Please model this.
Amino acid sequence: MFHAAPTAGQRRWTIRVPASSANIGPGFDVLGLALSRHLTLRVSLSPCPEPESKVTLSYTGEGATDAPLDPYKNLITRVALYVLLSHRLTFPAAHVSIEIDNQVPFGRGMGSSAAAVVAGVLLGDALGDLKLSQDRVKDYALMVERHPDNVTAALCGGFTGSFLRMLEPSELSPAAIPLAEVLPAYPANAGPPQPGDDLPPQPPTNVGRHVRYGFSKDIGVVVVVPKFEVETAKARGALPDSYPRQDVVFNLQRLAVLTASLGASPLDPNVIWESMRDKVHQPQREGLIPGLSKIVNTMTPATHPGLLGICLSGAGPTILALVSNEGAAKPAAGEATPQMREVGEAIKALWQQDGIEVEWLPLEMDDKGATLEEHK
Ligand SMILES: Nc1ncnc2c1ncn2[C@@H]1O[C@H](COP(=O)(O)OP(=O)(O)O)[C@@H](O)[C@H]1O
Ligand SMILES: N[C@@H](CCOP(=O)(O)O)C(=O)O
Model:
């Protein structure tokens, strides 16, 4: 049995979660970099004349025409409901208005689903007055989106490395906990929970562990975003179940060097470029992302001075390039240095040769991660 979450008059919150780029080359399912584009929710709760919950969603920005507005179908509110139900609560018996402004394009490898899942957990936290710790928010998010790379960066900000703890069989009840790529249907009927429904248990504790690495303030981030989407689930389906030992060793060697080299001063383009190469997911995804190998293998610090490294962002199709801004004035938010512009335009031109339309964006690392702020 569940109860409506408490309502104590009018309340307002802002939830803000950054985009993220996962993998950074060799760190498949490990590395994440939080990026300066955000999913923002403005939430207000006000008492209703009728004692029933009325959750209304509105969108501006990315996904505004695609995202479902039904709170039982929308990913953000379904995750919030999962968090509430696992505390034997449901949406408050009040009017909950959620205005969503989204700068993270869907299905482009910039962590839109991780941002939505983290925002959903924070929304459940706010509506249920649960006061979850950051670790607990991570536990919930990782039960929904099971690769910790994006979730950790989106939640904690910065350049992160993470792993999932090996859960004991007794901690896993797949029938009850919505382990899924992006929560395909939860609750199962995708409608309001019914009194007789099974409620999900709370997730195990410390599902994921992470560290934050140094990331030089002289690194500019360029993302080049094609106009087509690649679903993460589909891009994961392109990967084999096992790998030759030499490919695993190739990635492990580069992963170890990369994590230290992005925080070093001065930055060493040759070391970084080579340590951002990958053999476990990028070549396998080439079929879904035409032109990928050509771009990441032919653009080097020698051909494009200032380029530090280049890789697929997450599961793609976006390409992420790291550029050295050493010696240049720090660009204002949303502005590019000449080096960043050259790299962005060069990738765009290569992709255009294959008839692929793209836009490139100058970004920076997001240091803050996800925030939940209550307005008094
Ligand atoms: N802000 C959002 N609101 C609702 N659903 C979202 C939001 N962001 C992402 N999603 C869902 O996640 C899907 C994209 O997830 P995914 O294929 O993993 O791509 P990405 O690489 O962008 O995370 C979208 O098609 C949509 O169903
Ligand atoms: N490690 C995952 C990352 C998926 O990131 P997304 O932003 O594309 O959802 C993978 O490579 O599959």
User: Anything to note?
Assistant: The first strand starts at residue 3 and ends at 4.
